[in-house]
Amino acid sequence: MEKIMSVRQLCDEITSITFSSRYMAAEAKPGQFIAVKCGNNSMDAMLRRPVSICRADRWSNEITVVFQVKGKGTKLLAETAETGSYIDYIGPLVNSFKSPPAGAKIAVVGGGLGIFPLLFLLEEIRSTRKDIKADAYLGFRKNDSVILREEFTKAADNIYISTDDGSCGRKGFVTDICLPVIDAGSYDIIYTCGPQAMMKCVSKAAEKSGSECYVSLEQRMGCGIGACLACACRIAVRPAEGSSQAADGGGWEYKHVCRDGPVFRSRDVVWDKTEES
Ligand SMILES: Cc1cc2nc3c(=O)[nH]c(=O)nc-3n(C[C@H](O)[C@H](O)[C@H](O)COP(=O)(O)OP(=O)(O)OC[C@H]3O[C@@H](n4cnc5c(N)ncnc54)[C@H](O)[C@@H]3O)c2cc1C
Ligand code: FES
After folding, report:
1. Is 223 a pocket residue for ligand 2 (Cβ < 6 Å)?
2. pLDDT, tens only, 101-119
């Protein structure tokens, strides 16, 4: 449990909570999430809800998570979180985005709620790696839902925004803007998080252009400890290095986002067999 320093309403139904934790500020890595207890009465929302770490200030020890009210758990969290109260969570969990190699040109592609872990990644790179060039492609529904624009502008070299209705940035999907650039082989590594259809398009384009690509799968969760299968996804089994077996001939196995993720190498994700949450 940590003390909440501030609670902000970023836009309709999207809340940002900043809390203080020296441990998290030292340990959290971009891509990781926390499992938050929602509400004071455990019967209201028994299972903890996963929320990505959006910002980690290593100097002030402040951690920020941002979430949208979707159902019972997040509604309770939004209603009960207030400055001076406490947030009950477990984390940081589990794996994280791979760090880019020296001199890499990278892109982050985020849609809606998927932008949060990508901001942490960009801010971390901006503060520790002067050798990396980073572009951010962000998709929102409409102008009113465009959030954290200033933060992304500071953290990336270039930022490109799309909205479904064209009320901010380019009209259409974020993939309309980023796919031609990815197709041209402009990036060494691409990191993506958001709707599954978007991540699938980005992954296919990255694979075709020979870029490395990592996805953060924000599957719906249940138990959060690998016991219930709610967050299962199918991940290709690669033959061991040096094996004579064809590269994609190894079939697949179930992995759990809560235990093995949330970040996976995109070419390992068996998209057609991974449930849309
Ligand atoms: C690793 C990870 C990181 C996440 N990070 C964030 C984040 O930073 N910010 C954020 O707002 N949300 C994030 N989510 C999604 C968030 O956990 C869910 O929205 C939340 O658990 C819903 O709980 P609830 O009780 O409010 O809704 P419920 O009552 O459980 O469900 C209400 C509705 O939301 C839908 N829903 C539930 N879980 C998801 C999900 N994972 N994706 C899409 N729809 C869902 C349900 O299908 C249902 O229609 C993340 C999920 C994962 C797995
Ligand atoms: S949430 Fe139950 S297995 Fe992952």
Report:
1. yes
2. 999 999 999 999 999 999 9
